[in-house]
Amino acid sequence: MTLSDGLSRRGMLMKLGILLNGAVGVVLAVPIVRYILSPVIRERTSGYESWLSLGPLGQFPTGQTRLATYRNPVVNPADGETANIPCWVRNVDGEKFQVFAINCAHLGCPVRWFPQSGLFMCPCHGGVYYADGSLASGPPPRGLFTYHYKLEQGNLFINAGEMPTTGAPTASLTNISLRRPPCA
Ligand code: FES
Fold first, then answer.
1. What's the number of domains the chain is made of?
2. Among the atoms of ligand 1, which is closest to the Cα of residue 140?
3. Counting atoms of ligand 1 from 1, which one is nearest the CA of 125?
């Protein structure tokens, strides 16, 4: 084996290594680039942002807050019961409603309505919300997320299909309060 043979073999291995590293880099970069561009390129599946009925208005007596459930229209067969999404419906005066996401605005635990105190309370870190969904106390940085709603033919409909979060179009941030920083 000559010196020139050794050098050419080393050069060839070097090129092969660079080629393999490049291929691995491309494979790793694809999901990262897709993640970064996902807000722009993601597909809107059918059912995304659908108007869904929560039931007849008679289920929601004036002045009361009741639990309702809807079936997430963006669903996979394997989702099962997890696609049944609960929410809180507040009938303010028979004409005005509020529909709150059940998830706490802190870390998403399901909040519970206590009619005796007129408060929503979160079991996880003590977040408390007033009846209108605004923040009363605790670590959540804002009030409860609300769904857009409409009344049609005696039924209450909400605009759903994507879980309400800070960046979701169905989220209403009118109850934002930045009085308290989120806890660690
Ligand atoms: S998840 Fe509700 S207070 Fe933290």
1. 2
2. 3
3. 3
Question: For residue range 92-108, what is the model confidence (pLDDT) as tens digits?
Answer: 998 899 999 999 999 99
Q: Do 64 and 136 belong to one domain?
A: yes
Q: CA angle 117-119-125, nearest 5°?
A: 120
Sequence-separated contacts (24+) of 122-127 with Cβ below 8 Å: 125/183
Distance 113 CA to ligand 1 centre (A): 14
What's the gap in Å between 21 CA and the centre of ligand 1?
44
Ligand 1 atom having least distance to the Cα of 122: 2
167 assigned to some structural domain: yes
Q: Which residues of the chain have pLDDT under 50?
A: 1-2, 167-184
Global pTM reads 0.68
The C-alpha atoms of residue 171 and residue 164 are separated, in whole angstroms, by 5
Q: What's 86's domain CATH number?
A: 2.102.10.10
Ligand 1 centre from 40 Cα, in Å?
30
